[in-house]
Amino acid sequence: MAIRTPDMILIDVDGTLVDSVPDLAFCVDEMMKQLGREPWGETRVRDWVGNGVERLVRRALIGQLDGEPDEAEFEKAYPVFLDLYAENTSKRSVLYPGVKEGLDYLRAAGYPLGCVTNKAAQFTLPLLKDLGIYDYFGIVVSGDTLEHKKPHPAPLLHAAEFFKVSPERSLMVGDSISDVKAARAAGFQIVCLPYGYNHGEDIRIAEPDLVIETLAHLKGELEQAA
To answer: Domain extents for the chain?
Structure first.
């Protein structure tokens, strides 16, 4: 399916621009050890990422996607994780292949770019800066910037208003069902990458407008867009 030429492009962080699981998994496992419990390992943690670190900690405590841990245990664990992640936000995280190339093309082509993530600002901004991509974005909407976060449409609509662009002229690039739901609710087009964090499910099931292999592949699609 083809996409229409957008006037503005928003891009997700975790699972789209950055493979942040190595740092997140390290922090989860260290947290578990400090709680006197067995670590999970990177493969398990990878399926739990994508809805912010509070949700990740809750999932780690119960060892599954859905459900809630004992609240007292969560209250003990969460500060431990936050301290660990503050020191390990970008030590092991890397840009996915094609990200820098894709961002360079989008900037050169004159597209206003924004970043919309469910990660809290205290982790998002250092991560983007440490990996050298912060300056590509005219706005960064983090998970705690507004009252709501994805899949609510508010972060996307907030960025569209910032750039003074209508939702139907806007494009979201993400990797998860949360990105697809947010884009649909906001009236954006949605393009997804297949390699990210969608809890082990193929993102094509969520029926985005388009799936591309890397961010660099967006160039060809935009050059063909109506």
So the answer is: 8-19+93-224, 21-87
Task: Please say whether the beta carbons of 62 and 1 come within 8 A.
Answer: no
Spell out the per-residue pLDDT of the chain, length 226, in tens.
779 999 999 999 999 999 999 999 999 999 999 999 999 999 999 999 988 899 999 999 999 999 999 999 999 999 999 999 999 999 999 999 999 999 999 999 999 999 999 999 999 999 999 999 999 999 999 999 999 999 999 999 999 999 999 999 999 999 999 999 999 999 999 999 999 999 889 999 999 999 999 999 999 999 998 7
Q: Give yes or no for a contact between 176 and 196, defined as CB atoms under 8 angstroms apart.
A: yes
Is 29 annotated for ligand binding?
no
Which of 7, 12, 83, 179 is catalytic? The answer is 12
CATH code, 8-19+93-224: 3.40.50.1000
**How many angstroms from the chain centroid is the CA of residue 125?**
13
Is 14 annotated in a binding site? The answer is: yes
Domain 21-87, what fold?
Answer: DNA polymerase; domain 1 (1.10.150)
The model scores a pTM over 0.85? yes
Confirm whether 66 is a catalytic residue.
Answer: no
Beta strand 18-19 pairing with 8-11: unpaired
47 annotated ligand binder? no
